TrEMBL record:
Gene from which this protein is expressed: thrB
Keywords attached to this entry: Amino-acid biosynthesis, ATP-binding, Kinase, Nucleotide-binding, Threonine biosynthesis, Transferase
Protein's organism: Franzmannia pantelleriensis
Catalyzed chemical reaction(s): L-homoserine + ATP = O-phospho-L-homoserine + ADP + H(+)
Protein name: Homoserine kinase
Example GO BP: threonine biosynthetic process
Residue stretches making up the Aminoglycoside phosphotransferase domain: 27-255
Pathway: Amino-acid biosynthesis; L-threonine biosynthesis; L-threonine from L-aspartate: step 4/5
């Protein structure tokens, strides 16, 4: 249960008086999530989501507020924070930073179909096209510098073969990206798995949970998506879903030549990023709350598939 700070009906009702959102009728704790407390809040006027931030760098929360405000202003399906009657979004409740959001329609797609993949690709391409002009800045906390610094912490828990695999991969990324041309930069979601989207049928109702949001290589975000949305259980890529996402994405933001050249290596690097982060949770830095960590083996399997099979050809985009 991801309700680490219990709230009473009276606490939430008093909190809502800061906003022009109506009168509280119901609160419900949300069981999903790994880091923050989340409640569904219903008033006589609308459905909302209340999030209390339990851990992490609270001084970075204004970045997330600014990013969501910016994307919502550009008509992207994100939960732009609700601002209070004085125009302030970031609040405090029960001694924790708190944000109130509109509740977006839909549910997570467990097995996305091609129409859902196309909708996700089109929206991500739109988001990246406009996010290049976002003036906020938060360095990517899981980029190559992080991989270089952190992978040593899990090597002792790995087999000799996996130690060599991880170390060789990090060396390969340093060699490749150290000499590669700069890639297009912008604001990223940073964790755009299927369970961070909401679909109402084939319509994308929302992209949620921007708490890995940052600025950096746009290609990094896209590779995370492909490694989750377009894979089979054995880690291999599903060509139809892969192409549906990438064609729709490039209709909004065509990849540059440098991005196309970097694509196979970026798929490998983002696979290792999740293999490493999950190993760290299992062996080095377990969650503060009693939650089951994600299985690191899933992304080791994906990495091995990218090494053995390479990347699929990127679909060509021909101007109309």
């Amino acid at each position: 249960m991801a309700v680490f700070t219990p709230l009473s009906q009276a606490q939430v009702a008093e909190f809502l008086q800061r906003f022009d959102v109506g009168t509280l009728t119901q609160i419900e704790g949300v069981p999903s999530g790994t880091e923050n407390t989340t409640y569904f809040v219903t008033t006589d006027r609308q459905a909302l989501v209340l999030t209390l931030f339990e851990q992490g760098e609270h001084d970075e929360l204004p970045f997330f507020v600014d990013l969501l405000d910016y994307l919502a202003d550009h008509r992207l399906p994100v939960p732009g924070p609700v601002h209070d009657c004085q125009g302030v979004a970031l609040q405090s409740l029960a001694g924790k930073p708190a944000l109130l959001f509109p509740r977006l329609p839909g549910k997570h797609p467990s097995s996305p179909n091609l129409a859902q993949c196309e909708a996700l690709g089109e929206t991500l391409g739109h988001m990246h096209a406009v996010s290049r002009h976002f003036d906020g800045h938060r360095p990517n906390p899981r980029d190559l510098h992080w991989l270089v610094a952190m992978h040593h912490r899990v090597l002792v828990y790995l087999s000799a073969d996996d130690q060599a695999l991880m170390s060789d991969e990090v060396d390969a990324y340093q060699a490749f990206f150290g000499d590669a041309p700069d890639l297009p930069q912008g604001a990223l979601h940073g964790d755009l798995f299927r369970d961070n989207t909401l679909f109402d049928g084939e319509r994308l109702g929302g992209i949620i949970d921007f708490y890995n949001g940052c600025t950096g290589d746009l290609l990094f975000d896209l590779a995370i998506v492909i490694n989750d949305w377009a894979v089979h259980a054995d880690g291999s890529l599903d060509a139809a879903r892969h192409d549906a996402i990438l064609r729709a994405y490039q209709a909004r933001r065509p990849l540059t030549d440098a991005e196309r050249a970097a694509w196979p290596m970026m798929l490998r690097m983002t696979a290792l990023r999740y293999w490493l982060s999950r190993l760290l949770v299992v062996y080095v830095d377990p969650p503060a709350h009693d939650l089951t960590p994600h299985d690191p083996e899933q992304f080791r399997t994906i990495l091995l598939s990218r090494l053995q099979n390479g990347a699929l050809a990127l679909p060509e985009i021909h101007p109309a």
